[in-house]
Amino acid sequence: MITVTTNNSAKNTAKNSAEAGGDVRLCGISKTYGSFTAVRPLDLTVPQGSFFALLGASGCGKTTTLRMIAGLEEPSSGTVFLGDQDVTNLPPYRRPVNTVFQSYALFPHLDIFENVAFGLRRRGIKSVKKQVGEMLDLVQLGEQARKKPHQLSGGQQQRVAVARALINTPKVLLLDEPLGALDLKLRRQMQLELKRIQTEVGITFIHVTHDQEEAMTMADTVAVMNGGRVEQLGAPADLYENPQTTFVANFLGTSNLIEAEVDARSGDEIVLRAGGGKLVLPEARCSAPTTTGGKVLVGVRPEKISLTHADEAGEIPAGRNRITGTIADSSFIGVSTQYVIDSPVCPEFEVYAQNIDRDPRLVPGAEVVLHWNPAHTFGLDAAQDIDAGIETVEEEGAAA
Fold first, then answer.
1. How many CB atoms lie within 10 A of CB 60?
2. SS3 of 209, please?
3. Which end of the chain has the smaller Cβ count within 10 Å, N or C?
4. 293 found inside a domain
């Protein structure tokens, strides 16, 4: 990404708009279509000036939620506030929000300058050169002003769509899968670009995506949605490190979940029995009931685990959680090798090991010990579906 100094006037105009707006608040918002409930009643607050993501698989209700904020869908119940203003019954054009869609919807017959100027001209503003120039500089397209949309790359077109939306100084910018049409490399580049733009202008961005990496990279706060409700809300690192449900644990990356039973307590730790062995879980990282004899799902991320050949098991430091197993499969993917371990506690235990000093003995069929710091262990309610969130994420549908 090329970093440039943007014009302060465009930046200040956008920031002044944000400061006047307050946050976005949804109070008891829901949406039903006949007998189908797309969004269950939810309360949600989006902090002013934040980059907020609604993340979930197809059909989870995230796009419907966004459309209710935009005024493109009428809530079945509840209230939409922008700052202190109740906008629930206002039409889209009277709400201080703009939306960027996956298709960008640029006017093919207009050049980039006129595409960005469109909103200003529609409002009767005649002198637009300065504002449009500043906005094109913000999105690093000042030299492309007289080109037509078809002459730009997908990423450049996406930035034009953002500039056209921001020039109207909305209090909130809504982004509906804006990177979905881009290839992987360009999508990653644009994730950084969008985050840079949001940081510079200070306007609240609400971003809908089914891509976990996209949400984690860009957002300050992520709301993971599932079945029309918010499953968990928090900062990306907190959601990843401290999932509260099996859906979040499985949907955000990969988790190894082990069925275990509470054996005893030791200070601030819970001792669990699993597969004939014992595991230690910090009580603060357990969201499940921990009565003796109760069931708990013990979770650990694949990259937190070390893999040691069974011949060197005696060299593993004391105090670490450990289980034994046999390597069933391995895949070399450059920066790391991904192992699948057949273990008494979990038939397909996954381990991601960085390729620093590869042990040539770690091949399918080898007996190994998996071990990790107990502090990296989390506990979930065993009454949940252990496979929730593992389903293949399909392309977002219109009803999502």
1. 26
2. strand
3. N
4. yes
